[in-house]
TrEMBL record:
Organism of origin: Aristolochia fimbriata
Top-level taxon in the UniProt lineage: Eukaryota
Annotated signal sequence range: 1-23
CDD domains reported for this sequence: TLP-PA
Name this protein carries in UniProt: Thaumatin-like protein 1
Annotated S-S bridges: 32-245, 80-90, 95-102, 149-235, 154-218, 162-181, 185-194, 195-205
Keywords: Disulfide bond, Signal
Length: 309
């Protein structure tokens, strides 16, 4: 018996680390000051997850097991409620099902965490995408895997800073607080922003001033369709912590992506540090142009980075 147990233990390790048969566990946490209703959408041809949508109160977490080879996306819905007829809708990220659980859809704009587990070379591929716009700060932190396993996400609050042409307001007609920020593709439906038509290749579709607004604030997040090289990350046999409104006060290492003591690939920072040092210039600059965008951006980045040191 004493010999069998270590043998079994090794076999299980082999299963997990060599063949990676276990898929992954996503631990989704809500660190926002409000309830978030995660939405989960499985890619075509992959097994579904045990849930497609549920509420997460402020401070709450929930773990979800994803099967081998799972691919799909996870996002946060905000300001959801049931109307008098029992129809469930959300102000941002609504999935159109009329229910708490989603049924295939997902309304834009929303910050998306995208995964392909057990892909090429046995690696998980993951990213946080602003290609379809932004609604919540979000971070993906790989746990216990091997390889690069870089933390990615968009940890900055961008709704207040959103350029007015992309802004989504809480109330119809543009009133109320800003609750999300559309992509230029969604806002203008033009081929050069959507990387479609004559712009459907990496050579012809370039970053725009709008995609750069997202990229400068969140250098590791996907900002437009051909932004792969700095935005897609890999890790083998990992689990993933996905946090809405992440708080980095106690997670310095996660902020730089160097938390696992592994050599890092050359990659952009999680937060644009130059914004701290230029924060005050931005503020006066923006004020003189009458634009709140750079000012708010600089302030929110500064506030976050103040926790690092
Ligand atoms: C996962 O995908 C690989 C490669 O496509 C395939 O060989 C394998 O059978 C799949 N495993 C499961 C459990 O679906
Ligand atoms: C880590 O990332 C670098 C650069 O992206 C890549 O060349 C390398 O193969 C990656 N290492 C692993 C183990 O995936
Ligand atoms: C940081 O922001 C500045 C100002 O918006 C920009 O010029 C720079 O390219 C950004 N850096 C990164 C790594 O995105
Ligand atoms: C977030 O940061 C604050 C201030 O440092 C700290 O008191 C709080 O415990 C943190 N919350 C989480 C969930 O890490």
């Amino acid at each position: 018996m004493a010999r069998v147990v270590p043998y079994l233990f090794l076999s299980v390790l082999q299963l997990v680390f060599v063949s990676g048969v276990l898929g992954a566990t996503f631990t989704i946490s809500n660190n926002c000051e409000h309830t978030v209703w995660p939405g989960l959408l499985s890619g075509a041809g992959t097994s579904p997850l045990p849930t497609t949508g549920f509420p997460l109160q402020k401070g709450e977490s929930r773990s979800i097991s994803a099967p081998t080879n799972w691919s799909g996306r996870i996002w946060g819905r905000t300001q959801c409620a049931e109307d008098s007829t029992g129809k469930f809708t959300c102000v941002t990220g609504d999935c159109g099902s009329g229910k708490m659980e989603c049924a295939g859809g997902g309304a834009l704009p929303a910050t998306l965490a995208e995964f392909t587990l057990d892909g090429s070379g046995g690696l998980d591929f993951y990213d946080v995408s602003l290609v379809d716009g932004y609604n919540l700060p979000m971070v993906v932190v790989p746990q216990g895997g091997s390889g690069n396993c870089t933390t990615t996400g968009c940890v900055v609050e961008l709704n207040g800073a959103c350029p007015s042409e992309l802004r989504v307001a809480a109330a119809a007609g543009g009133g109320g607080e800003s609750v999300a920020c559309r992509s230029a593709c969604e806002a203008f439906n033009a081929p050069e922003y959507c990387c479609s038509g004559a712009y459907a290749t990496p050579d012809t579709c370039k970053p725009s001033a709008y995609s750069e607004f997202f990229k400068h604030a969140c250098p590791r997040a996907y900002s437009y369709a051909y932004d792969d090289s700095t935005s897609t990350f890999t890790c083998a046999a990992a689990d993933y912590a996905i946090t809405f409104c992440p708080n980095f006060s106690s997670k310095k290492s996660a902020a730089t992506g160097e938390g696992n003591g592994r050599p890092e690939a050359v990659q952009p920072p999680l937060v644009n540090a130059s914004m701290i040092f230029t924060g005050m210039e931005y503020a006066s600059d923006a004020a003189s142009r009458g634009g709140a965008y750079s000012r708010l951006l600089a302030i929110s980045a500064w506030a976050l980075l103040a926790y690092y040191s």
